[in-house]
Amino acid sequence: MTPSPAAPADLVITGCTALLHTDADTGAGERIEFAENASIAVRGGIIEAIGVGVDLPDARERIDARGQLAMPGLINCHTHAPMVALRGIAEDLPTEEWFNDVVWPIESNLTDIDVELGARLACAEMIRGGVTCFADHYFSMDTVAAVVEECGIRAHLGEAYFSSQGPQGREKSLEFALRHRGGAGGRITTALAPHAPYTVDDADLAATADLAREHGLPVHIHAAENRDQTETSLARHGLTPIEVLARTGILAGDLDVLIAHGTGIIERDLPVLERTNGRTAVATAPRGYLRFAWPTTTPVRALREIGVPVGLATDGAASNSSLDVWESMALTSLVQKSAEGDPRWLTSRQALHHATLQSARAVGLGERIGSLAPGRKADIILVDLTGPHTQPVHDLAATLVHSARSSDVRTTIVDGRVLMRDRELLTLDVPGVVRELTERLPALVDRSHGRRIQEYDV
Q1: Quick one: which of 157, 221, 345, 354 has the fewest CB in 10 Å?
Q2: Rounded Cα–Cα distance for residues 357 and 311 (Å)
Q3: What's the mean per-residue pLDDT of the chain?
Q4: What is the pLDDT of residue 3?
């Protein structure tokens, strides 16, 4: 009896150079290698085979990737996607004025339509820049979840809340997290999202920790964003923001926690974070810190020495003007060299590790995405390195980190589905979004009402 032929794969990519993690399962080191003339077979949203000389099945869709590099999709570990609508609205301001005089007054005007249009534009920007997953911390997240489901990207979503909203804010965050967990065919994961220790009181933080344990949810929160916040917290409470999170049970070591920024993390915080046994991660977004002239940056080296993963992020486009994780990768490497006074740190391979596997671990997806290997989700980008700004190539890792640009991404694939092919977006209508958003901007940016959603006082 003749065996029936195997069913065709969904997608086969041929002729590429593939970025491979030789330590993807152990998590040790930053051992990255490049396999030339590699092929990748995808079935059911999963990488079925990858390598040189692999036996390739027939496929419903094929991509000839000669001259291109295949690598895991980038992950934006902390952003506020709908805030692209405020790109460039508050420039050259210190943090307090940025929040109190511009951003929080404007955010009091937000409608679901504004959030939807901002999320669409943000997802388009990220897909074009090779981002296949983003962690969002914002309002009206039902709307963001709907955009994620439609456009095909992967997302880790949390409905932000302040104590000033009363118990309803925390309850809404929980309800969102439970209702959307596993949504969009598994592409959506969720978290509880208290804003920060300076806007969420100890009682709400403790209640959040209890809810996270009860429902098996992670927590995504801003903390120790800058040194001023840490010093103010010490003056008011005798504790750093990190110690506040430990006292209230958020950092008890039995919850998965993603901390945004952490440039105010100081030496006394390190034992607290170490005791969480790798279940706490930090997202760093260096461009915003430079814009606000913060005197310190995320202490990546110290965090890594105690086993805390550090993922790459952009923050929102209102503070960063960009959702470009390629830029975050290059800036992280350069800023860390400057902060440590050591040109040997952070190396290009280390930076790539942060952009891929460490970022995946930071958003709780370290077993599913972040590397190209059989059994991993097929979140893949193809990068064209033939441009004059990337030639000649002496060190492929250095070329990717310091010479390549987001515009070099030719193709973006999430869960095995092609979302952009040869720079053409297939799931989003950018001109239509921009046209509608532009019409709504006068009402959105109006500050004559004198309201603000919160007070920044640290």
Answers
A1: 345
A2: 9
A3: 95
A4: 37
Contact 442/85 with Cβ under 8 angstroms?
Answer: no
Q: What letter would DSSP give residue 416?
A: T
pLDDT in tens, 236-261: 999 999 999 999 999 999 999 999 99
Cβ(148)–Cβ(120) under 8 Å?
Answer: no
Strand-pair partners of 20: 33
Here the tokens at position 140 are: 């009206």
H helices of 248-299, where? 270-274, 286-291
Tell me the H-state helices in 224-266.
227-237, 241-247
Distance, in Å, from the CA atom of 7 to the CA atom of 11, rounded to the nearest integer, reads 12
Q: What DSSP state is assigned to residue 42?
A: E
Q: Which tokens go with 78?
A: 């902390």
DSSP 278-309: T-EEEEE-HHHHHHTT-S----HHHHHHTT--
Q: Which two structure tokens, joined as six digits, stand for 194?
A: 């208290």
Please say whether the beta carbons of 284 and 336 come within 8 A: no
Q: What distance in Å separates the CA atoms of residue 347 and residue 445, rounded to the nearest whole number?
A: 42
Has residue 23 got a pLDDT over 70? no
The candidate with the shortest Cα–Cα distance to 137, out of 185, 199, 93, 91, is: 199
Which run of H or of E encompasses 205?
A: helix 202-215
pLDDT of res. 31: 85
Whether the full predicted model's pTM is greater than 0.90, yes or no, is yes
**Alpha-carbon distances of 436 from 114, 126, 376, rounded to whole Å:** 9, 20, 38
Q: Measuring CA to CA, which residue among 84, 138, 135 is closest to residue 317? A: 84
Alpha helices in 43-111 (DSSP H): 95-97, 104-107
Secondary structure class of 331 (helix, strand, coil): helix
